[in-house]
Specification:
Blueprint: H1 2-22, H2 62-65, H3 68-76, E1 80-84, E2 87-88, E3 91-92, E4 97-102, E5 112-118, H4 121-133, E6 137-141, E7 144-148, E8 165-168, E9 172-176
Antiparallel strand pairs: 1-4, 2-3, 4-5, 5-9, 6-7, 7-8, 8-9
Length: 189
Amino acid sequence: MLRRIISAVAGGLVALGALAACAAPSDPPASSPSASTARTPDTDGGPTGSPSATAPGEEISCETMISPGTVDALSAAGWTAQPKEFVIGGVELTAGMLCFWADYSVGSDHGQLYGWSPITAEQAAEAQEALAAGKWRREEGPQGVYFTEDPEYSMGTDDDGYGMTYLFGDGWVKVSDTRQGLILVTWSG
């Protein structure tokens, strides 16, 4: 029952974050992170459109990696982000960032995971091989190659039954705790 409650809350927060991202002002203040372009899910459940260009000189952080509306929604809920080591199947990605958002004032394993990193073709091949060996489900889509964990072992799933998912694009990889959550990772490098 606890697993269902955690899944329901996680799904609600992803939905809240997506709604907040859609409700973000069209002209963000000059000091805020760059706004993302409008996106809608494509027919295979992945994000469409491309992230907006990152402002010159802007560095990747837990707050700039995801949409400003998502940051606002998570912050309003009392959540903060902590960077984590970004490793996929033994491939360490030190040029990117993996962040876990949660309310660290309470003891819980509940939170949201977002990550983005540049990746070489060799690193991507090695990471994908490790994920396939771990029985992660591989799917191709217009944005790239998706690898999703077995839902039986997932902490939570989205409306389409996808748990933690990596999306490998051309020279980059991003991750979220659900496939639908990938749309909130707007960093473009």
